[in-house]
Amino acid sequence: MGDELLAGFTVDTNGAWMGRRAARLGLPVRARFVVGDSARDIRGALARALEVAEVVLVTGGLGPTGDDITREVVAEALRRPLRLDEALLEDLRTRWATWRGTPLPAGNERMCRVPEGALVLPNRVGTAPGLVLDVERRMVVLLPGVPAEMRGLFDEGVAPLLRERLGDRLLALVHRVFHTTGIAESSLAERIDAGLPEDVGPVSIAFLPRLTGVDVRLSARATPADPRAARGLDRVEALVEPILRRYRYPAESGDIVECIAAEMTSSGRTLAVAESCTGGLVSRRITELAGSSEYFLGGMVTYADEAKRAHLGISGELLARNGAVSEEVARAMAEGVARAFGADAGLAVTGVAGPGGGSAEKPVGTVWYAVHLDGRTRARRSIFPGARGAVRERSAQAVLALLYRKLRGR
Predict the structure, then answer these.
(1) What is the mean pLDDT of the chain?
(2) Cβ-based neighbours of 284, under 8 Å, separated by 6 or more
(3) 34 alpha carbon, distance to own chain's centre
(4) Distance (Å, rounded) from C-alpha 264 to C-alpha 211?
């Protein structure tokens, strides 16, 4: 909750975190509401949430300032008078004196006012406690909006309570995620739909597109002792594996650089990179992963034609005849950077990232990229959609994917 969330000044990381935690716990999320610091809006969201869910998790608005009105509004809506909890207040005064060395400000006492019948969840990280209210076989949980406080209270107080009360009704969501690159979401979905029977049992399939590729997520719900979820996932995985094989890369982090690093270090090869339109993005991605010094020798951003001539040894005649964005120049860049650094492998990217600079022959998004490996050079051309940033991200992924496939002999 909060006006700052609606205005976009603060991102709702709490909602995303709680959604993941609830799913892991086995509590399906039916809906999520974001409202401002308005009593009417809070009441409305609470009423809608109680209509669709048995457990309602609320964050934010439990602090000491005038815009922290969640506790009061929820208590009024549920007809639970607020009572000052003297033990809670004394504990807060003691902790405040320890933390700050000053008396507790008078306004902070409001955080110790508890709705009648509420279970108090002590907050050892901050000041506002969590509150749990039972409402006609439903549960309303109020948690502070400060992420560290909310997370601590959820894991230490809310999760054990949910396990105790819901028991076997909690069906944990089990995932298997497969990372792919080089194929559009719609094309991948079409192929998988065609390769699966109409009934895949308890398994659901989700497609999660990114600029760098598409993740395919298989999900099933089951209790820990129920083997049906694992069997169902095994069955569907066996059906989709031949479809994914050409595009899949087994990176736990989701970054294909993880796979490249494993291949390069295990084979003892070294790598160098020459970039034009990506401006160092490929080198940055490689070096963001710890351990890249084992195989990565260095990179060059040869943006201007003069830089390509001076540092990569590309002839002016080749550039004039084919243009900087061409198969010939991409190949020469990959070979030139490998030669310059004495590397076993060289990568190169050159293209028109936009928004200007395109032509009828080479529209914006046209990119040539090349891999020089084991004395052979392979080049590919793509026309990537999107704005400048998207073209650059997709270009970096494309050349990294080409390298990975060549390292795997594909």
Answers:
(1) 94
(2) none
(3) 20
(4) 24
Torsion sign (Cα): 48, 52, 56, 60: negative
Helices 185-195 + 228-244 axis angle, to 10: 120
Q: Are 96 and 106 in contact (CB under 8 A)?
A: no
Q: Which residues contact 100 (CB under 8 A, 6 or more apart)?
A: none
Structure confidence by residue, pLDDT tens digits, 155-207: 999 999 999 999 888 887 788 999 999 999 999 999 999 999 988 888 999 99
Read off the pLDDT of residues 122-134 as tens digits, 9 standing for 90 and up: 998 899 999 999 9
> Which helix (H) or strand (E) element contains residue 312?
helix 305-312
Taking each helix axis from N to C end, the angle separating 388-407 and 256-267, rounded to the nearest 10 degrees, works out to: 30
pTM of the complete model: 0.77
Instruction: Return the half-sphere exposure (C-beta side, CA atoms, 13 A cut-off) of residue 314.
Output: 32
Count of other CB atoms within 10 angstroms of residue 228: 14
Pairing status of strand 119-121 against strand 113-115: unpaired
Local structure of residue 364 (DSSP, 8 states): T
> Cα–Cα distance between 271 and 251 in angstroms, integer?
20
Alpha carbon distances (Å) from 266 to 180, 253, 262: 23, 19, 6
> What is the tens place of the pLDDT at every residue in 223-234?
666 677 888 999
pLDDT digits (tens, 9 = 90+) for 292-312: 999 999 999 999 999 999 999
Please state, in angstroms and rounded to a whole number, the distance separating the CA atoms of residues 207 and 388: 24
Q: Provide the 8-state DSSP code for 111.
A: G
State which H helix or E strand residue 262 sits in: helix 256-267
Helix, strand or coil, per DSSP, at residue 373: strand
Structure tokens at 205: 């399939």
pLDDT at 223: 66
**How many Cα atoms occupy the beta-carbon half-sphere of 63 within 13 Å?**
15
Per-position b or e across 137-166, b if 16+ CB within 10 A of its CB: eebbbbbbbbeebbbbbbeebbbebbeeeb
Q: Residue 315's CB: how many other CB atoms inside 10 A?
A: 11
Please state, in angstroms and rounded to a whole number, the distance separating the CA atoms of residues 337 and 272: 6
Could you tell me the sign of the dihedral formed by the alpha carbons of 320, 322, 325, 327, in that order? Answer: negative
